[in-house]
Amino acid sequence: MTPDFATADFPAVSVVIPVRDEAAAISPLIEEVAAALRDRRFEVIVVDDGSQDGTARILQALETRHPWLKSLGHGRSRGQSTAIRTGVRAARAPLIVTLDGDGQNPPDQIPPLLAALEADRSGTLGLVQGQREGRKDTLAKRLASRFANGIRGALLRDGVRDSGCGLKAFRRDAYFDLPFFDHIHRFMPAMMLREGWGVRTVGVTHRPRHSGRSKYSNLARGLVGIPDLMGAAWLIRRSGRPRPPEEARRQDRHAA
Hints:
The chain is α/β, with parallel strands linked by helices. The protein is 41% helix and 17% strand.
């Protein structure tokens, strides 16, 4: 039975889930999200990014049963970052949570992210980034991700070892401070810091994929990531914001 708070006019939390061809995973995932947020006023916005496997039909059926669920769709795939942006634009809550639509991000990890964000009394914490612990991906994928995160961390200096984790909690207004580009969801900690927002990390669990398949091979992920990484580094360098004193001292020592 759906609790009454879920239908409130002003949700406190909007959960945005980008999906593409996740017909087998999406229904149980949505039910898990609702269970994880049963003590809150919430809404769930699922953005179907051009699925061809019947995902849209399943979402339409779920939407008729759950007043807190809204499904949106792209006629063709426009990428995960654009799907997230579509969902955040439609969101009504000041706090946003994102997670991947394949079921590998356990929804019971949402409350710890929200708790960290809500504990901030300064209003300067923009993002709580999940960091996967005990990843259930293949060894090749884990090694490729570790290598990519090492390069990204060295260039962007965002202090985050797993910015690609789909579990994130952030302020809606902070999100719209960020420059938008394709694949920005992988660089959100660095972009938040660029705009002067604080970033925290929280360890989260991870599950194996039980259905469907990954939308990127390791090679494809690497090929699209190189220009994005260089572009993100350029944006940080050209932000026009003064460097924090400790960073300025560190860079001056290297230059000496």
